[in-house]
Amino acid sequence: MSEFIEIKVGEKSYQFPLISGTDGKKGIDIRELHQKTGLISYDPGFFNTAYAVSRISRRDPNSGELNYRGYDIADLVQHSTFVETSYLLIYGKLPTEQQLKDFSLKLSKHSLIHEDMINLFDGFPGKGHPLAVLSVMVTSLSSYYPEEYEESLDKGIDHSARLLAKIRTIAAFSYKKIVGQPFVYPLDKHPYCTNFLYMLFSIPSKDYIPTEDIDRILNQLWILYADHEQNVSNTTVQVIGSTQANLFASISSAINALWGSREGGRQVAAVGLIEDILKSRKSVPEYFEKFKGDSEKLFGNGFGHKAYEAKSRRAIIASKLFHDFYKKILLDLSQK
Predict the structure, then answer these.
(1) Might you name a Gene Ontology BP term for this protein (predicted)?
(2) pTM score, two decimals?
């Protein structure tokens, strides 16, 4: 039997159905609110509003539980790779051995960017913001690969794989532009994360091949941050995409949304805060005295979360990964 909630406006009562989210929680379907009542809802920040039903990822703000497509994030971090997890998020299931091989081949096939795009990097100042460069370059993909989504599928072209392959190369080239080094092209023989690190840190006189530990921790960190439920960037992608804008334009808009000081910019601020702590030579408790009674200022520096009641699983797992990683580095150094 369907459940309803009754809303009274003056002397009139209106019924609206209750629906269940993928996590079992109830919600009010108010799509007919204006049609029935002439009213609209007002919810700044979408704190009480879901714009869609999604089965891609689920995060419980009370317990901190996080899963992708029903798989617990901790299991994916320990037993999957970033490419496997990407396949899971895009297609809804973990790949078979053959599917993973085919998907990896697609990523290798599309890893190069059009050579004319190299000229675009020359137009950026050496110290341009990385997100500015990334956004412009991703938008430009629309000009070099203008096929419509359906047309591409008919040709066997997967836009998702194409973007996943090329954005890694664009990000690496953006870094090289900032540090003033020659671009290093991807090699088919390297796995996805290895290739990114190879492009970042190789120079013409010396190739950089990451250790297994470094390659693994990058895979694990990218798995942790592969999807963020209904956050600002995901919302932006869906809003822009709903106009039938192409994938590249939609993702570029999401990159710009990530830029703000209340979104991805908070991570940048957190790094700056940690550097400031080191420069101050104060103990951590002593340094944080200045934030007492000013939680908003602390939030702006990358600490805390508006929606999470419990500590984020991402933060817990990432903290353990870094502690284990640096313990091993120190152990290796002590044995040399």
Answers:
(1) tricarboxylic acid cycle
(2) 0.84
